[in-house]
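Workshop exercise sheet. Pairs work together: one partner reads the sequence aloud, the other fills in the structure field after running the prediction. Swap roles for the next sheet.
Pair: D.N. / O.F.
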Amino acid sequence: MLIVNGEFGKKLRKLRLKAKITQKQLAEMLGVELATISAYETGKIMPSIPKIKKICEIFNVNPDTILGSQSVDFIPLVNHIPVYDGAHVGNVPNFPKDAVVLEWLDVPMNLGGKAAIIVHGDSTSPEINDGDIVIINPDLEIKSGDRVVVIFEDGNGSDGAVVKIFKQQNDIVILSSLNPKYSPFAITPEVEIKYCAKVVGVIKRYPLK
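Structure field:
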């Protein structure tokens, strides 16, 4: 089977640079976002079979050139997951059931991702920046120190989907921002947690250096 690894990304980057094609141009050719090309090249996600075939057409190579001994006739080990806008999902009464899907993303199956959220703001920087995509799984056990996506209601309206560090101190749950300029806060009886999911991966919205 087609196993996700860094070799595909390295070969794709080499072909792209040799052809003097930018990531933005390749993204337009494949009909994907710029961040997706970056994720391909850094080995975070694997293209679908149709995308791999399109890549072979663009660079005029056969599948073995870019996949080695692997064949595109096999099914890749990826999950096809929905991507939501973190700025809006907090206002969705029954998230994720009634939320608008912005796009679909292929991620490695062993990552365990069930959905993805586009992050807004600077409360998670510098680790996760505005516009980055966090991959989440609401079915995994959450432990103290994990990054989580939380949607909560505090009586003043929803704060959207926010990424926090989950900390358990005795019977008290404390949510802390990754950015130290924001103060942590405890979950009190007045705060309703509407949704909470463990972060299992991050896709940088812009090419990594």
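Discussion prompt: Helices lie at 6-18, 23-30, 34-41, 49-59, 63-67. What would you look at next?
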